[in-house]
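Zinc-ribbon domain-containing protein
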Amino acid sequence: MKLFSCGVCGSTVHFDSIRCEACGTGLGLAPDICDIAMLRDACGMAEDRHGGRWRLCAHNTPDAGCNWLVAEADDDPWCLSCRLNRVIPNLANPDHRRLWKRLEAEKRRFVYSALRFNLPITPQSRDLRGLAFDFLADGPGFSERVLTGHAGGVITINIAEADPVERERMRQEMDEPYRTILGHFRHESGHYYWDRLVRDTDLLEPYRVLFGDERVGYGAALQAHYENGPPVDWGERFISTYATCHPWEDWAESWSHYFHMVDTLETAFAYGMRLTPRTGLTGALSVDAGLDPYETRNFDALMAQWMPLTLALNSLSRSMGHAHAYPFALASPVIDKLRFVHHVIHGGVFADGRSRPSPEIASSF
């Protein structure tokens, strides 16, 4: 995530800031320009540094905690992120309010990335091909379980995923090294964008070469995975054990991982991070985060920064007595899949009515 600055005093502010800690100016994020705007009056009107006018999202409340803004000319009361919601939990329950607020905070990070990538992010309420979110709770006595997943452009997330104790229990039960709220948003969005950007395009066959044939029965493949586990050599071809169960999941895990990589690299870029290890391998382990990872079209340049950065992240985490911050190993076939995701995102502009990925990109795989 990049850093922002207060338009009044110039102090550093952050993605989720609601006010400048230095001068007290109220702040909000204008999603159309991915920048911070300053609140100018008691009615909640804001102005960005280019003179654009904005107002507070209707979910700028203690329960939702949304700091995003709506363009003054837009008659929708909700910001882009909030208007993606189709169902939210019953807020009469204080636990639901607490968990929903955490979910919304992570959803805004996902939407920010989609905007930076210029991906289609239209609410399904306005376009049947658009995206929607259902945030649901388990039924009485947990006899009615809500399964996190995607179907027909609707991403369903069990709000229990926002409870760190429950999420850790699930992580251990599923034998996963990594499980986060943001990871769920990124993974499930991968299924949605596969439908939008790969299916019915000239990238489908190259996708099948790398990930496998998605026409293999999904239900049977998932059952076999849970009964038999992953293949012994899964790490040589897949980013995670879950990626082994079906080509759709392999794609979604790779898509999610690419988002992790780019967003983390943007943070390193924003802080001007430089790594020059005091070893004889300085060339292989050096990082000079001098590029905006959302803008670069050079995948190899991203990987050259990513690998040494993860080594430093893991070393720092271990020095604090924690497990590896980045518990992954990227084999060559996995890197090829990440490269494919990179080209799907950058190989064309995917908004409605505009160009699809070019045949040249498709033929390169």
